[in-house]
Amino acid sequence: MKAAAAAVVCCALAAGLALVAADVARWPNALRSGDVRYRVAPAEDGLWRARQNVPGGLARRLLGVDDDLEVRAALRAFRLGELDDQTISDPRLAVLRGEARARLETIAAGDGDAGVRSRAFGLLGVLSLSSALNEVRDRPAQLRAAVRSFNDAIEADPDNAEAKLNLELALQRGRGLEAGEGSGGRNPSPGGAGASGAGAGTPGSGY
Predict the structure, then answer these.
(1) d(Cα 100, Cα 107) in Å, to the nearest integer?
(2) Which of 82, 88, 130, 195 has the lowest CB atom count within 10 Å?
């Protein structure tokens, strides 16, 4: 009787392990296919999602892909936030930019890979710099936040050349703002007329 019960338990465990193994096997393909779909249609729902037999995300936790998924979600929100669009009253863009900032702050404050954290800091700097260039309100504070984020990016990864270039841009804009304010101009544009083209960068291509 005991042997029969033990056999039933063993069979149930084997079946459960088989289901988990099948779930684990689906995740690499889900990430790859999601990356391909993201490049073509970033606004599509359901990117980087794998069909799972066992509830609770057990396979996902076993693989440790939560960090990878969070990075992808942050980059997606950043891209859909359309920083090259200088519209500041569109609630949809405001929500996406806010989501990108929140996700990037979580990644930057974590204890993950230094290169990933550096990139998150850099993108936070780009968000602040975009706000400084496209909005009049709190412009000096946004520029200071951008400089701080780019410095944090360089501290996390001294080889982050993109952050170094963006830091220099933010410092130049800050100097331009100080010069404009010193001349008594009304709502001066930081850095002069060149500010209109900023914000067109995409993740990984520089600002």
Answers:
(1) 11
(2) 88
* Sole residue written with tokens 């209109």: 196
Q: What's the rounded Cα separation, in Å, for the pair 75 and 69? A: 10
Give the gyration radius of the chain's Cα atoms.
23
Instruction: Give the pLDDT confidence score for residue 78 in this predicted structure.
Output: 95
Which tens digit of pLDDT belongs to each residue from 151-191? Answer: 999 999 999 999 999 999 999 988 877 665 555 444 433 33
Domain ranges of the chain: 1-49, 64-183
Exposure of 171 in the CB half-sphere (CA atoms within 13 A): 9
pTM listed for this prediction: 0.74
